[in-house]
Amino acid sequence: MAQCQILKEYAQYVAKVRECARSSALDVAVEEAVNYCIQNDILAEFLRKNKSEVIATSIFEYNKEEEEKKLRKAEYEAGIQEGKLQKTKEVAITLSRSGFPVKKIEELLHVGEETILEWIK
User: Fold this and answer.
1) What pLDDT score was predicted for residue 5?
2) Which residues, including other chains, have CB under 8 Å from residue 111's CB and lie 6 or more apart?
3) Average pLDDT of the residues of the chain
4) How much is the pLDDT for 61?
5) HSE of 75 in the Cβ direction (CA atoms, 13 Å)?
6) Nearest to 24 by CA among 36, 12, 38
7) Burial environment of residue 31 by CB neighbours within 10 A (0 to 12, 13 to 18, 19 or more)
């Protein structure tokens, strides 16, 4: 970034949007960041010429980034749940092979009898 002034200024703009978004609604935060950058000569010429497009694009991109974060988090949590279910299934099968009755496995693992019977088939 030290060698590319535009990239450096763009990073400053993005950081300002994120800073403003902590305390304001996204649309307000983006407009505040654009105005700040113009006043502080950060991408000023470009932002003056393209202010409305920059604001619209920034809101869209920021929302997209947030949605992708939420999606990754949901996928991660689903993976954790799938892993827990897989482990519970393995434990149920192991207990069954060790001679534990299905009713006892049901009590220990808090899983329905039908599910346990399906797993140990």
Assistant:
1) 85
2) 88, 92, 105
3) 89
4) 78
5) 6
6) 36
7) buried
